[in-house]
Specification:
- The protein contains seven helices and no strands.
- It has about 140 residues and is mainly α.
- It folds into two domains: about 70 residues, 434 Repressor (Amino-terminal Domain); about 40 residues, no CATH class.
Length: about 140
Amino acid sequence: MIKKVPNPIDRHVGSRVRMRRMLAGISQEKLGEALGLTFQQVQKYEKGSNRISASRLQQIAKMLDVPVAFFFDGAPTDDMPAGGFADSTATTYISDFLATSEGVQLTKAFTRIKDSRVRRRIIDLVEALAGETVEKP
């Protein structure tokens, strides 16, 4: 049996729905309820295994208080020229990270830190823990 692989754009849109939902602090159950769906259906949308219709995406955008275009920001495209300076893997791993609960928690907590020196020291610490050399600006 051949396993169907989700379309990259459906996966991207789904991951952006998940990221925004988590940033808004809304559970899959609550979003599903508001849309008249089960949380399993929301889960399938977020994984990209079920495609989100245009009207449903409009509903989701309204519920999550973002424009529909938000879900397509950074989406993979086939019409991009090969080579060049664009690094699609950089945006992909950032989107993937922000779609995790840890990514959302870290982002929320980090943005609440008002002191720029403290934020810089946290970045230095994380880079040191990751084994990267830290260059001072």
